[in-house]
Amino acid sequence: MAEVYNLIKPTIWLIVNVIISFAYFYFLKERVGANIGISISIGISVLFAALTYVHPLPLLYLAWKHSLPKETLTKYIMKFGLPYDVGKDTVTWKNMAGFDKTWILDEQIAHTLPVTHIDFVYSTIKVPGIKPEHVCTIAHSTGSIFIDLLKQEATARCHYLVKNAVSLGFVQDVVSGKISKDNARDEYARRILNNVHPDWFPDPLGEAHTTLGEGAHHLLLTGGKHEHFM
After folding, report:
1. Within 13 Å and on the Cβ side, how many CA atoms surround 96?
2. Which of 84, 174, 168 is closest to 126 using CA atoms?
3. What's residue 196's pLDDT?
4. Are 90 and 113 in contact, with CB atoms under 8 Å apart?
5. 220 with 140: CB under 8 angstroms?
6. Residue 22 reports pLDDT greater than 80
């Protein structure tokens, strides 16, 4: 089924853009057609549809609900270039700023401690050797890191790249044994508040200095111990 979909996907996308072209045309015809003429309306419609077919990013600026992800999307395009993949609710870059994959979602994961804060940027790296006991140590420290044991991958979520790098560097050091389960929570707090990021992260947006002291919303302030901590 997936193979069939991949075969017909380009055709579906072409049909969608033909429909968009007609929509552009009728909009221009009704609103400004009398002033610019039918031929110019057709030309503008075809141009817009062609641009959308080549890259659907313009549609996201119209369709996405949240303003901050759209602002971050613009910032990343200006700094890192066009993304690797664009979906309805997500835009993805590969091999960006030391991460294997980074993506922006049109979502609003809000925190209220210490202040209202929104998370929507996800970054993933490979972490060979990660085990269930490591996952427990990490989960005891923060709710902003997600582990895929099968793929041996770790993903961090924030709205700053530097905070994602801090979180993923923390994962690497837990797995390598540099951080024990006894001091993991305190060490994560120290790192996330002071932007202690790994050497592989180049901080291309200069966030390490501008976001110092932020990140308390990533800390788990309450909760019982997991069985691995008993």
Report:
1. 24
2. 168
3. 96
4. no
5. yes
6. no
* CA angle 40–41–45, rounded 5-degree value: 115
Q: How far apart are CA 109 and CA 119, in angstroms?
A: 5
71-82 average pLDDT score: 93
**Domain boundaries along the sequence of the chain:** 2-54, 66-229
Residue with tokens 């600026």: 61
Q: Are 104 and 120 in contact (CB under 8 A)?
A: yes
Question: Which of 58-62, 118-122, 221-225, 226-230 ranks highest by mean pLDDT?
Answer: 118-122
Helix (H) or strand (E) holding 167: helix 161-176
Q: How far apart are the C-alpha atoms of 135 and 121, rounded to whole Å? A: 21
Q: Tell me the whole-structure pTM to 2 decimals.
A: 0.73
Q: Are 106 and 90 in contact, with CB atoms under 8 Å apart?
A: yes
Q: Give 75's pLDDT tier (boundaries 50, 70, 90).
A: very high
Q: Is the separation of the CB atoms in 165 and 194 below 8 Å?
A: no
**Structure tokens given for 197:** 């990021």
Radius of gyration of the chain (CA): 22
Structure tokens at 93: 């870059």
Give strand pairing partners of 145.
Answer: 156
Reduced to 3 states (helix: H, G, I; strand: E, B; else coil), residue 213 is coil
Q: Fill in the amino acid letter for 175.
A: V
Residue 115: which pLDDT band, with cuts at 50, 70 and 90? very low
Phi and psi at residue 65, in whole multiples of 5°?
-85, -35
Coil vs helix vs strand at 130: coil
- Quote the Cα angle for 53-56-59, to 5°: 120
Distance between the two ends of the chain, CA-based, in angstroms?
Answer: 47
